[in-house]
From TrEMBL:
Keywords: Metal-binding, NAD, Oxidoreductase. This is 4-hydroxythreonine-4-phosphate dehydrogenase. The lineage of its organism: Bacteria, Pseudomonadati, Thermodesulfobiota, Thermodesulfobiia, Thermodesulfobiales. PANTHER family: 4-HYDROXYTHREONINE-4-PHOSPHATE DEHYDROGENASE, D-THREONATE 4-PHOSPHATE DEHYDROGENASE. It holds the Pfam family PdxA. The keyword Oxidoreductase applies. InterPro entries: PdxA_fam (IPR005255). GO terms for molecular function: metal ion binding; NAD binding; oxidoreductase activity.
Length: 343
């Protein structure tokens, strides 16, 4: 698979000076650390251009509070970047304090930025962390997060992937109860996971392309004595994939309890995990908070930081790590190069 997107649309996008190639950013929960980490990153990388949906006065006051020399203008279509100023009725007093009005504002910025992405055919969308509970309470309906919202909006499965600078992880199933995971293990979903991780591995330049698929049951089923998913579905899929993706070295199903050590021994950096916490917990133990989430399967790439709002450190920006944003913007640059070189 040479390109995840429609080639004609991308060729039009990246051969123009339109805003489609500039990252669109939703500010997330302003009581937390998302915008703080963005300010820290942009202060060190002033050549980066973004289209940021937030309140400009809040952003400017935050820069002053952090003693950061950063001036981003109000968005201007002729320039193609800047802050899309959204009105709010609070200031820096909300830092570190969960607040319903901040939750509602984060939702408004998300919706307005998503409309912008759709209308302008933007190709790279960054959503900073939000508080799902506060949004749900403030808008009067259940909000289960960006990924679930986008899946429902586009009526399709979204590929959920994580990267920590070394390991690339795909989750076959997302935010579902453990008891429902087995039903999600199908040839179709395994193939979607495999194609997704191949696409991202090409963008990141992961070579040689070795991919491990984890088992579901203890000891990867022990030949069918503990569960049947490995024997009936996963092993036959691996044989199928080896025949149809000859340029990929596939390993598995690996026993989850020793997967990390096997990955190191076999020099494997790409992993397909069958449920949310199966390998992500290991990644977070190794690399937190420098982990990013990447969603593909949408008309655009969507990225976010793989950590929460971080209220406890929001009042002390020196404690906030911007390493996740370094990974996201490096990925963005790789994505642009990969896309333009595909033509």
């Amino acid at each position: 698979m040479s390109n995840f997107y429609d080639k004609g649309n991308l060729e039009k996008s990246f051969n123009s000076c339109d805003v489609v190639s500039i990252p669109v950013v939703s500010c997330g929960d302003l009581s937390g650390i998302g915008l703080i980490s963005l300010v820290k990153y942009l202060t060190k990388n002033k050549d980066k251009k973004i289209i940021l949906f937030t309140n400009k006065a809040f952003f400017d006051d935050l820069c002053d509070f952090m003693d950061c020399d950063l001036d981003i203008p109000t968005f201007d279509s002729s320039k193609g970047y800047g802050i899309v100023d959204i009105n709010c009725n609070f200031g820096l007093e909300v830092l570190g304090k969960p607040d319903y009005k901040v939750g509602k504002f984060s939702y408004e910025c998300f919706i307005e930025s998503l409309k912008f992405v759709e209308e302008r055919n933007s190709k790279f969308y960054l959503t900073l962390p939000i508080n799902k509970y506060l949004i749900s309470k403030s808008i009067g309906k259940k909000f289960l997060g960006h990924t679930t919202f986008l899946e429902e909006r586009y009526c399709k499965d979204i590929s959920m992937n994580f990267f920590d600078g070394f390991y690339l992880l795909n989750l076959l199933s997302h935010h579902i109860p453990i008891k429902d995971v087995s039903d999600q293990i199908t040839f179709e979903k395994l193939n979607l996971s495999l194609e997704s991780i191949i696409y991202l591995a090409n963008i990141f330049g992961i070579k040689p392309l070795k991919i491990a698929i984890l088992g579901l049951n203890p000891h990867a089923g022990e030949g069918g004595s503990i569960g049947s998913e490995e024997e009936l579905i996963i092993k036959p899929f691996i044989e199928y994939a080896r025949s149809n993706y000859s340029y990929v070295e596939l390993f598995g199903p690996l026993s989850p309890d020793s997967a990390y050590f096997n990955l190191k021994a076999l020099d494997i950096r790409a992993v397909i995990s069958l449920y949310h916490d199966q390998f992500l917990s290991i990644m977070k133990s190794l690399s937190f908070p420098r982990i990013i989430e990447i969603n593909i399967g949408l008309p655009f790439l969507r990225c976010t930081l793989a950590h929460g709002v971080g209220y406890s450190v929001a009042k002390d920006p020196k404690r906030v790590d911007e390493g996740g944003l370094e990974l996201i913007f490096d990925f963005y640059e790789n994505f642009i190069r990969f896309t333009t070189n595909s033509f």
